[in-house]
Design brief:
Blueprint (H helix, E strand, L loop, with lengths): L45 H26 L6 H18 L3 H28 L11 H22 L6 H15 L4 H11 L15
Length: 210
């Protein structure tokens, strides 16, 4: 009888049960675009979404500043501001948002943008090495991107119903968004200004900057 070498001896198959480890579900991040997302008026998710879009608009102020710095244009543009606010009033009415609330909110966006532009212009004048290397076209490159955000901001503003917890939730959302976007002090100050009207008038007679 042939002797089977030990190396070829049939091994005993041990069935090892597979352990299924439950992995905590990763929360789906709020989509600032609102695509496919239905948010009720009191849904807190609308507030972080609004803050994220405000940050996105505020970051575009850098491109506005670069365009005006390179082109020599003034920071304030009353005609453009009036045109924007008239458009905001009309869009607000169409969305069922109080036009006064929409205009008040966008006035804050305009002023916040100016804060960034003035700060950057001062920085660039003091430190020429930090000046932007390119000058974007304000009319064809920057403003169309800003205009795309306008109706989306107004929709989220309408969904954000001020309540007793609004200021606390707003502060948390603002800090989180500022951290994600790595905003510097200039942009964080401007963000506070941009968000000042959001929780008004539910918690006071006028907007406050924390």
């Amino acid at each position: 009888m042939a002797v089977v070498p030990g190396a070829l001896v049939a091994a005993v198959l041990v069935a090892v049960p597979v352990m299924l480890v439950a992995v905590p579900a990763v929360p789906v991040p709020y989509a600032p675009t609102g695509a496919g997302v239905v948010v009720s008026p009191a849904e807190p998710a609308s507030l972080p979404g609004l803050v994220d879009l405000v940050v996105r608009r505020l970051v575009l102020a850098d491109a506005v500043a670069a365009a005006k710095f390179g082109g020599g244009g003034p920071i304030s543009d009353p005609a453009r501001e009036r045109e924007l606010l008239d458009s905001v009033a009309a869009l607000s009415a169409g969305l069922g948002l109080d036009p006064e609330a929409g205009v008040r909110f966008f006035r804050a966006q305009i002023e916040a943008s100016k804060v960034v532009q003035r700060g950057l212009h001062a920085r660039w004048r003091a430190h020429p090495a930090l000046r932007p290397r390119e000058t974007p076209d304000l009319a064809t490159e920057v403003r169309p991107r800003l205009d795309l955000l306008t109706p989306r901001l107004l929709r989220l503003l309408k969904q954000t119903a001020p309540d007793r917890g609004c200021r606390t939730r707003l502060a948390l959302a603002r800090r989180a968004a500022g951290t994600r976007a790595r905003l510097d002090g200039l942009h964080r100050d401007a963000l506070r200004l941009a968000l000042a009207p959001v929780c008004w008038p539910a918690e006071g007679a006028k907007p406050e900057i924390e």
